[in-house]
Amino acid sequence: MPGAVDSSAETSEREDELGQVASPVAEARQALPLVAVVGRPNVGKSTLFNRLVGQRRAIVGDEPGITRDRIYGEAEWNGRRFSIVDTGGIVPDDDALIPANIFKQASVAIDEAQALLWVVDARKGVTSLDEELARHLRATGKRVLVAANKADAERLEADAGEFYSFGFEDVFPISAEHSNGLGEMLDALVAGFDEPAQNEASDEDAPREVRLAIVGRPNVGKSSLLNRLLGEERVIVSPVAGTTRDAIDTVLESSGHTFRLIDTAGIRRKGKTEEMAEKLSVIMAKKSLERADVAIVVIDAVDGVAALDANIAGYAHEAGCSIIIAVNKWDAVPDKKTGTPAAFERDLRDKMKFLEWAPVITMSALTGQRVEKILPIVLRAHEARSLRIPTSKLNAFFEQHVSQPRGGSAPAPVKGGLSRLHVQYMTQIGVRPPRFVVFTAGGKPGLHFSYERYLLNRLREEFDFFAAPIRLVERHKRKKRE
After folding, report:
1. Distance (Å, rounded) from C-alpha 114 to C-alpha 433?
2. Are 86 and 58 spatial neighbours (Cβ–Cβ below 8 Å)?
3. Which of 350, 346, 345 shows the shortest CA–CA distance to 362?
């Protein structure tokens, strides 16, 4: 079956090359001090995080509990770089599934961090939940800087003084929205860091990372797959659809290769997104595809291929991502019979005809079945999308497949079939994804889709553009009138 990769010998060889998956994120950020932004819900943690990293990485809104997982970024102040992690609003004694998991995720960030930025609301003053959080933070023994946020007026700056009652030395009235007071807070923050190591690698020395987005419908197992790849519970997993809201970046190092894993919110149909935070999360999921090299489109094996799966795969294709289709929950498919994977793939290919070139892997994020094959496949896809064909090889390809297509010398068909075009030559104009220009003359511009498909298939077969979309652009030369 074209594109199937479940049991190929070549994949096994590449698995050996890639080696074992390294554990978590700490290894990738070990050279930089880590700062955790913590606090109760709706005090402005994500606004402060976005301000410090200099981009809108976390969703911001008036609804409490928008941020749920850990979101990492990097910031710089006075020449000192540091990692920073945004956490969900902490409610320690809430036993509900999602708040309890938010607390668990925040606790992991606190354990990893060298310093804590505790964000409180200067407008509302000290609350009982703040007092409870103060006890938790004191028990860590770590340096805590209190950021009294929403201090937009002189009176509020004075009101921020009441937070000294918690016993922390550093209290700073700030406005994350307007950047007021951030300089003094950051001066104190970086002053407490150790001096950077002299042998710290520069950005120029760092290898190019592979940006990998995990996309799909809600509750198909995207976060479970991310956690399985990392070997830790990095993001919240629950049966509640829509648990993930932000596009969450995690860096994974494995045998000299760096992967930036992007877990996205489940994409629903437009009519099914109700909360503003959920609508924003869908927009950010689409935007995450624009910065990804490879997209894993996760499909639920039990539910089968839905029309929305094709739409989501279409978003990845439009963004120019190389695409791998991961059929998750394969362990839960009832009454497996010989030929079931092939039958499933035939149905999938029929509903996603535009992805006939995308490899398909059946797996289970829950049990780990075949998950170890994914990163080697991703690495191969990333290599293929960066492939630039030497001019001599492209000319030879043109002579064999284009100058005399399909063994004949007939000109190429055009849209409508009323006239004929002559394909004069072709050239590669870009990579990531591979892009080619076909120069035509005679007749009206507009190659017939069947001829475009013929060219794309021949290019893919000849040069092994594994899992990569290929962009084909026509440039038409008109005859000059005498």
Report:
1. 40
2. yes
3. 345
DSSP state of 5: -
Ranges in the chain, pLDDT < 50: 1-2, 5-30, 57-68, 94-99, 199-206, 234-247, 271-274, 276-278, 405-410, 418, 482
Rounded CA-CA distance 182/172 in Å is 8
Comparing CA positions, the residue from 317, 329, 352 lying closest to residue 467 is 317
DSSP per residue, 406-436: GGS-PPEEBTTSSSEEEEEEEEEEETTTTEE
Please report the pLDDT score of residue 424 as a whole number.
83
| 3 state SS of 476 | strand
Task: Report the amino acid identity of residue 317.
Answer: H
Planar angle of CA 290, 291, 297, nearest 5 degrees = 70
Q: What is the CA radius of gyration of the chain?
A: 26
Q: How far apart are the first and last CA of the chain?
A: 54
Give the strands of the sheet with 71-77, arranged side by side.
71-77, 80-86, 34-38, 115-121, 143-149, 170-173
Cβ–Cβ contacts within 10 Å for residue 210, how many? Answer: 21
Per DSSP, the three-state class of 359 is coil
Amino acid at the residue 232: E
Predicted TM-score (pTM) above 0.70: no
pLDDT digits (tens, 9 = 90+) for 129-139: 888 888 888 88
Q: Give the contacts of 157 (CB within 8 A, at least 6 positions apart).
A: 122, 151, 173
